[in-house]
Amino acid sequence: TDTPVTVLGLGLMGQALAGAFLTAGHPTTVWNRTTSKANDLVADGASLAPSPGAAIAASPLTIVCLTDYVAVRDLLGGDDVDLAGATVINLTSGDSAQAREAARWAEQRGARYLDGAIMAVPPAIGTADAVILHSGPRPDFEAHEATLAALGTVTYLGPDHGLASLYDVAGLAMMWSVLNAWLQGTALLRTAGVDAVTYAPFARQLAAGVADWLPGYAEQIDAGSYPAEVSALETDVRAMTHLIEESEAVGVNAELPRLIKAMADRAIAAGRGREQYPVLIEEFSRPRNGP
Ligand code: NDP
């Protein structure tokens, strides 16, 4: 807990990160373009550096959390910044190509670079609920793992710098799919006078039940073999038709179920109707533009 750490960027997230380091007892140096955002942290014991370069030089580890990768490049590419020998962990959100590119760019300037993704909101930072993913050279992660633990549940994914961003966007796909499925069901039930609050606990249990299928289905995907153990895709598609027809009949939006059925119909047209649902990975694994 006496390892010094620097935080560059004191937006909503950066302030939470710096605050968690202070709470854990780390000597914490901060810098932000708008200096006033450091006031509360300085009152809590943080040191405000006069420049980004001075901030990076103050600690063996620098955490960067800005709006986007353009801002990161602008900041770390500044005249006063010397990255040689510094370790930078960039927790700014972005895509995997940006992460790999930023890694090359920082390494060319002599930095050790890890890319990360924060799957949490600022109030959760510093608790086990804050999942923070890291990717890049393992030794660089392990060298700072104990310090990073102040932020939450820290996980190392692998040496490919793009992995943290990929997991991050995969998590977005999960989040929106679960939420949209719940909203579809809520819209249906409201037509019969069932409140959202009444349906929510039922929906929660359904979502958890479906989540339990994932490990077994994942084995089918990795094996590239989809025997219909519990249900064939063509049976599922008949149920999709019920969902679409019910939605249309009660005047609820049917776009999402139609989109899902269109994917399944293509798989059936390709001869996969007697296989199990995860065979749709083949539809998800190739690009297709337009509706
Ligand atoms: P804010 O908008 O609150 O803060 C943005 C920060 O970036 C500020 O410190 C801002 O400085 C700085 N900044 C922007 N452009 C520049 C620049 N050109 N040069 C220097 N500094 C710059 O955003 P958040 O703190 O909420 O988010 C930061 C990152 O964390 C984002 O990538 C976001 O996706 C990610 N994240 C945020 C979550 C959240 O719930 N807030 C959840 C998960 C990830 P200034 O104060 O001077 O404007």
What would you say this structure looks like, in words?
It is a single chain. The chain is an alpha/beta fold and 291 residues long. The chain folds into two domains: 155 residues, 3-Layer(aba) Sandwich (Rossmann fold), CATH 3.40.50; 118 residues, N-(1-d-carboxylethyl)-l-norvaline Dehydrogenase, domain 2 (Orthogonal Bundle), CATH 1.10.1040. Helices cover 50% and strands 13% of the residues. An eight-stranded mixed beta sheet has the order 3-2-1-4-5-6-7-8, with helices on both faces. The protein is elongated and about 65 Å long.
Features:
N-(1-d-carboxylethyl)-l-norvaline Dehydrogenase, domain 2, 13% strand, alpha/beta, 50% helix, Rossmann fold, eight-stranded mixed beta sheet, 291 residues, 2 domains
- The termini sit apart by 53 Å
Overall radius of gyration: 24 Å
Strand content: 5-15%
Helix content: 40-55%
Query: What name does the CATH topology of the largest domain carry?
Result: Rossmann fold
Biggest β-sheet description: 8 strands, mixed
Can you name the CATH architecture of the largest domain? 3-Layer(aba) Sandwich
Q: How many separate domains make up the residues?
A: 2
CATH class of the largest domain: Alpha Beta
Order of helical and strand elements: EHEHEHEHEHEEHEHHHHHH
Please list the strands of the largest sheet in the order they lie side by side. 3-2-1-4-5-6-7-8
Question: Count of DSSP E strands?
Answer: 8
Structural class assignment:
alpha/beta
**Mind telling me the CATH superfamily name of the largest domain?**
NAD(P)-binding Rossmann-like Domain
